[in-house]
Amino acid sequence: MTTADKLNKRLDDLWAKFLPQMHSRIGTIQRAIDAWHDNTLSMYLRKEAADAAHKLAGSLGTFGLTPASDDAAEVERLLRAEFYSDEFRALLEQHFAQLKQAIDSRSGKP
Amino acid sequence: MQRHILLIDDEDDIREVTAVSLETVAGWQVSSARSGVDGIELAKKALPDAILLDVMMPEQDGPATLRLLRNNEVTARIPVIFLTAKAQSIERERLQAIGAAGTLAKPFNPLTLANEISEILKWQ
């Protein structure tokens, strides 16, 4: 077994360990998007969601999901923007969908 | 040569991935702390070869932790590399101006992390 193989095996174990935490962060962002749709998005939830996206951006790439890290960084940027619009929200939802898809794919979900 | 790295980061997953990466790829020993306060105490006891320090942490952030490390004669000369999601050149220059040996971007590649640290610190 090569060093890369050993590393990948250990990273797979860590992925399984931290998947619930990833899902929790995804859930926080989802709640913010839902609240945005309902015009009930508080500054607190918006910051919590931006922080969750920041953490996903920092960690997903280390598990080989570099494009998903970029999507998470974009979600964070949009949630921290001073001004926002329907276009912003559409872009946010697009990056968020890609982010969720990448996490599901690595977890073996279709 | 086996190195001893101290990682200070509030994120559990980053701490564990970093430890697995450096232990598996380079055979280095890794200690970790989840806050700047705990990290400084561990640095004083363990005297690691280098410290990887997250920039954004609650309460005491990376730059504040670095200042305290530099103001303590026991830890003043331990090289510190920042881990930051904002690895643009302005951010890198700002962090090096306050005494960092270098900066590494998060997310990093676990397979090449040890090499990147060695290059920054000019380790053979």
How would you describe this protein?
The complex is a heterodimer of chains A (110) and B (124). Chain A has four helices and no strands. Chain A is mostly helical. In chain A, α2 packs antiparallel against α3. The longest helix of chain A has 35 residues, at 3-37. The model of chain A has no long low-confidence stretch (mean pLDDT 93). Chain B has one domain: Response regulator (Rossmann fold, 3-Layer(aba) Sandwich). In chain B, 43% of the residues lie in helices and 19% in strands. Chains A and B meet through α1, α2 and α3 of A and α1 of B.
Comma- or semicolon-separated keywords:
A: 110 residues, mainly alpha, Four Helix Bundle (Hemerythrin (Met), subunit A), 4 helices, elongated, B: alpha/beta, Rossmann fold, 5 helices, 43% helix
What is the CATH topology classification name of chain B?
Rossmann fold
What's the name of the CATH homologous superfamily of chain B? Response regulator
Count of individual beta strands of chain A: 0
Low-confidence stretches of chain B: none
Largest sheet of chain A: none
The number of distinct helices of chain A, counting runs of at least 4 residues, comes to 4
**Count of extended strands of chain B:** 5
List the helices and strands and how they pair.
The complex is a heterodimer of chains A (110) and B (124).
Chain A: H1 3-37, H2 43-60, H3 66-79, H4 86-106
Chain B: E1 4-8, H1 12-26, E2 29-33, H2 36-46, E3 50-54, H3 62-70, E4 80-84, H4 89-97, E5 102-105, H5 113-121
Parallel strand pairs in B: 1-2, 1-3, 3-4, 4-5
Helix pairs in contact in B: 2-3
Quick recap of the structure?
The complex is a heterodimer of chains A (110) and B (124). By secondary structure, chain A is mainly alpha-helical.
